Amino acid sequence: MNFCHGAHCMIWGTCYMTRGPALVLLLLLFLNKPCLGCNFNYSPLSSTFEVKIAELLKYLPRDYTVSVISNLKPDAHCSDLWMIYFIRKELVRIEGLSGEKLKEQVMFVRREVEFINTECHFNVSEDCRMEKKNVTDFLNMMSLTMNFMRTNNKIKNDFSNCTRIFCEKGASVNDTTQQRKHGATFDYPKDEPTGEGHNSRDHTLPILTSIVSVLILCIVLFVTKMLCNRNTRRPEDLAERQE
């Protein structure tokens, strides 16, 4: 009985995958273990960030409002790093709206958390919502979060599993769209029948192409892994880059 059908073809008595499924497999292999980074074997937090935060407060009006994440999902390992991500994002916004003198002070503070942008690549949940806070509360929260991360060198850790930021849905969020997504049906193209009279040698070139693609992918994944292992920068290198 010939079990080679649909997504496969027969070549000299051996069943092989045709080009379409092979390319899908290559894509899945490539996306399986990306170089996520966010792994610190040193502390990227300086010992002067509190001084810079206090200095920035002198230049900001006390009633100045900023945006703060409001529904971050509690996570013992990731939540504080996620908070630093949103803090840095808001500092970038403030810096872009500031005059020359204030912009300089915001930049000094923003550089203290710039590592979150250079070392980590986040994917933020669509459920995340922001709320308005006083800038004093915002900077106090920043100081507390960074101090906590420095305690017992908590920042010196592997956060590669934290690159997906999760937020909690509020009770008022409409779930209709999400339900439609889960209830959706899709029409997939049916496999074309392949008769036994089909000349299997016609498939030789696509199969060879797929094999060469696999070999190239293996080389790319190996090089990517080597680069990932060197992804963590030393503090002095990061400081030199920021200057």
TrEMBL record:
GO MF annotation: an example: kinase activity
Skewed-composition ranges (Basic and acidic residues): 188-202
InterPro entries per the UniProt record, alphabetical: 4_helix_cytokine-like_core, Flt3_lig
Keywords: Kinase, Membrane, Signal, Transferase, Transmembrane, Transmembrane helix
Transmembrane segments: 205-224
Domain of life: Eukaryota
Name used for this protein in its record: Fms-related Tyrosine kinase 3 ligand
Positions of the UniProt region annotated as Disordered: 178-202
Organism: Xenopus laevis (African clawed frog)
Signal peptide feature range: 1-37
GO cellular component term, pick one: membrane
